[in-house]
Amino acid sequence: MDFYILAQQLVNGITLGAIYGLIAVGYTMVYGVIRMINFAHGDVYMVSAYIAAITLAVLHFFGVQSVPFALITVLVITCVITGFYGWSIERVAYRPLRGSTKLAPLISAIGISLMLQSYVQIAQGARDQGVPVLISGAFRLGSDRDFVQITYMQVVILAASFIAMAILTYVINHTQIGRQCRATQQNRGISAILGVNTDRIISTVFVIGAGTAAVGGTLVTINYGSFNFFIGFVMGIKAFTAAVLGGIGSLPGAILGGLLLGLTEALFAGYVSTDYKDVFAFALLIIILFFRPYGLMGQPEIQKV
Fold it and tell me: 113, 42 in Cβ contact below 8 A?
């Protein structure tokens, strides 16, 4: 029986960690390029949840019945529209303040975050919203009494997260725009001298980060079925924690940090208490950072003279 409880919590933790990792990618990519934290990123995730629900409603209005087609369409449309939000945030909150102190863009991003919350609250209402169940059913391993259950939606989440991460890894490591992103991350000034359009690369990074948040927001919305205008705050804090835990600025670190945070929460909730799972997760973060100040896969920065 203990084995099945452990296995179930591991499944739940990996699923949750995959979502954290997807959203943490947005934080770590933006920080890697401009060395600043996009504190509006959690609310971009929140906006993607509403866009996904609206897209589902439009598809239902036009009589679309195919669940795979609807899911793929929702993912694509949500990523495109959310990517535009990411691009707009960079142009409005970051680019005009790029030459100022580091505190100014941070405050600007917090202002954008509050603006997005108010905008969605006014446009869609303050009450919880919901979407119908699209994918039901589960795989069960074990006996009728003791078993491990993996829902079909969890399989979709894991598959979509893996595909999104694989595509992003390929783009960053094997394409021209990926090489330009890595060059800009290493030295923006030298990259500009060598002909890299750093402004375009920074905007692209914001768009990519918003796109990964959109994948996470769509999957979470369809899985849990309910959301509100405030979900971005909690998920944003968790994803930022995952990025710091893995080593902010490191793409593999964001994924590792998300998985570790998800597993930690699931195991603590299953064996101790759901009320204090967040406390334990943040305590783990403090302990790890005490021994690894730059995160599990982060590297110490060389101070420029």
Answer: yes
User: Phi/psi class of residue 187: alpha, beta or left (left: φ > 0; alpha: ψ in -120 to 50)?
Assistant: beta
Residue 124 vs residues 127, 235, 264, 266: alpha-carbon distances, Å: 8, 20, 34, 32
pLDDT, tens only, 268-285: 888 887 777 878 778 888
Distance of alpha carbon 305 from alpha carbon 296, whole angstroms: 27
Residues 6+ apart with CB under 8 A from 121: 229
- pTM for the predicted model, two decimal places: 0.89
In 3-state terms the chain splits into helix, strand, coil percentages (rounded to 5) of: 75, 5, 20
> In degrees to the nearest 10, what's the CA dihedral of 222, 223, 226, 231?
-100
Residue with tokens 């535009």: 84
